[in-house]
Design brief:
Blueprint lengths: L1 E6 L4 E8 L2 E9 L9 E10 L4 E5 L6 E4 L4 H6 L13 E8 L8 E3 L2 E4 L3 E5 L3 E4 L5 H14 L4 E5 L8 H23 L5 E4 L3 H10 L4 E5 L2 H10 L5 E5 L6 H4 L3 H6 L4 E3 L5 E6 L3 E7 L9 H23 L3 E6 L6 H14 L7 E6 L5 E5 L6 H5 E3 L8 E3 L1 H14 L7 E6 L1 H8 L11 E6 L8 E7 L1 H14 L5 E4 L5
Parallel strand pairs: 1-14, 11-12, 14-15, 18-19, 24-25
Antiparallel strand pairs: 1-2, 2-3, 4-5, 4-7, 4-13, 5-6, 7-8, 9-10, 10-12, 16-17, 17-18, 19-21, 20-21, 22-23, 24-26, 25-27
Length: 497
């Protein structure tokens, strides 16, 4: 039976999805940090840069968003005719985020607004008719003829696979519903002061809908908001939604923390003793397939093919789990047979078929490397939970300070109802320094918290040493300081309402 855990209680919200006991999806969002892709904003054009064929739009985020001229209705409807002001400085513009902010770059946006349903996608601002790639030439021509009779000059439409056999009157009804949704957006945009969010995009809902369709299992969450989200997202009666009643953090309660710790490891072992090695560079992700302990029971080429097929299936799971994007290159064990390469590429496509994010298996290069491209939607798992180790000068990675901050918040939340009024925590040097600059922002959940700089063992960068009365903890910390090499001490007082 499949299982979903939705931790929807604190500033960091986490969604985990297990199939057949294995973690397939881990989606993390932090309040105020996005993801923003799919959101629609009423923005203000702050700068027009003809030399870049682009403009910069204020949508209310830290950095202005990048808007290419080709992503505007005036460009598309004029055919890119020169001498036209595609956008004007100071102009209010409804835009959709197509790529989240990355590093020093702001978000990328489009003024071509998409309104989608399971049947159709309506695009306002350009004029075209497209069908699913599964449509035959005859079916595609049929829909071009039908759609052109119903579309306005500033509308484009994509007919999805499940709608290819529909009739014209069904198309007209579905199109009318999408137009109504667009008109609702326009009314909302007219009612806000720009820059402002007009329509939010809930990635959690999308993921749950995708992974629960046609399956059965159990969903666990720790908040009433999480229950409502799951009830809205799941249409099947085959899924049971359960509200957790314990004070233990949800993922810890279900013994899932170990799966999270493995999720960003460089080495992933396969069931036959072979392994995958993951490397991340600024330009791409590289995955190396190694036979490891696997020697096989067949001829060498069969051993290679067997390992590569198993690796392709696991790479697909890991790409989705780690949310890898951009260029992904996989160095499979060398195959000389074109038919073997074709089998491996097909297995790779099958492994990515459940992916909510668009990906393309490009094919093998002359050097035998399989190329994949995957759309960027939110940060990858490395960005969320890891950071470069300052002691390794970037050669290694450790649990990130931000990830540890949210883990500490979850632990404090879980201890809210303990009768003890004090808490003693040890934190390593780097995390202690991080906390020192943010101590006023940490909610101690009604307790006095002592945070001591000290050596910490284990996968986390802090450890809860003890609970007790404030006087007891002060005495214990003083005794420990006399016998251990420690650094500073933070004392976080109970916040007053």
């Amino acid at each position: 039976m499949d299982k979903i855990l939705l931790d929807y209680q604190n500033e960091e919200k986490r969604l985990g999805i297990w199939k057949d006991g294995r973690l397939y999806v881990l989606h993390v969002e932090r309040d105020g940090e996005g993801p923003y892709a799919g959101n629609i904003y009423e923005g203000i054009v702050r700068e027009v840069v003809p030399g870049m064929n682009a403009a910069f739009v204020d949508i209310g985020l830290e950095k202005n968003a990048y808007l290419p001229f080709e992503e505007t209705p005036r460009y598309q409807l004029s055919g890119g005719k020169p001498g036209i002001a595609y956008v004007r400085q100071g102009e209010k513009l409804l835009v959709r985020v197509v790529r989240d902010p990355q590093g020093t770059k702001g978000a990328k946006v489009s003024a071509l607004i998409e309104i989608s349903s399971p049947d159709l996608i309506l695009i306002k601002g350009e004029h075209f008719v497209r069908t699913s790639k599964n449509a035959s030439h005859q079916t595609a021509n049929k829909w071009k003829s039908i759609a052109k009779k119903h579309l306005q000059e500033d509308e484009g439409v994509i007919i999805r696979t499940q709608f290819l056999e529909a009739e014209e009157q069904e198309f007209a009804a579905a199109l009318a519903k999408l137009r109504m949704r667009y008109e609702t957006l326009i009314r909302r945009a007219n009612g806000v002061k720009a820059p402002a969010l007009v329509s939010g995009h809930n990635r959690f809902t999308q993921i749950v809908q995708k992974w629960t369709a046609g399956t059965q299992g159990e969903c666990y969450t720790n908040s009433s908001e999480g229950v409502r989200l799951l009830e809205d997202a799941i249409s099947s009666d085959e899924w049971e939604i359960i509200r957790s009643k314990t004070n233990i953090p949800l993922f810890e309660e279900h013994k899932a923390e170990a799966d999270l710790e493995k999720a960003a490891k460089r080495i992933v072992w396969l069931s036959n003793g072979a392994y995958l090695l993951f490397e991340r560079t600024e330009a791409m992700h590289v995955i190396d397939v190694n036979t490891g302990k696997f020697t096989g029971k067949h001829e060498q080429w069969k051993t290679m093919l067997e390992t590569n097929l198993l690796a392709a299936k696991e790479v697909g799971r890991q790409v989705i789990l780690r949310n890898l994007s951009g260029i992904i290159v996989i160095d499979f064990i060398n195959m000389t047979s074109a038919s073997d390469r074709k089998k491996v590429a097909a297995e790779m496509e099958a492994a990515l078929s459940a992916d909510l994010t668009r990906s393309v298996v490009v094919g093998f290069t002359e050097l035998g490397l399989l190329q994949i491209t995957r759309k960027k939607e939110g940060p990858d798992l490395y960005e969320v939970i890891l950071e470069d180790c300052p002691r390794c000068h970037g050669a290694g990675h450790i649990q990130g300070n931000k990830a540890e901050w949210f883990e500490l918040s979850r632990q404090l939340e879980a201890m809210r109802y303990l009768l003890d009024d004090g808490l003693w925590i040890d934190a390593d040097e780097d995390f202690f320094a991080f906390l020192k600059g943010r101590e006023k922002h940490l909610d101690t959940r009604g307790k006095q918290v002592f945070i001591r700089q000290a050596a910490v063992k284990g996968s986390h960068r802090f450890v809860i040493r003890a609970t007790g009365t404030v006087n007891e903890l002060e005495e214990r910390i003083a005794r420990a300081a006399a016998g251990e090499e420690t650094g500073g001490l933070l004392r976080l007082m109970v916040k007053q309402d």
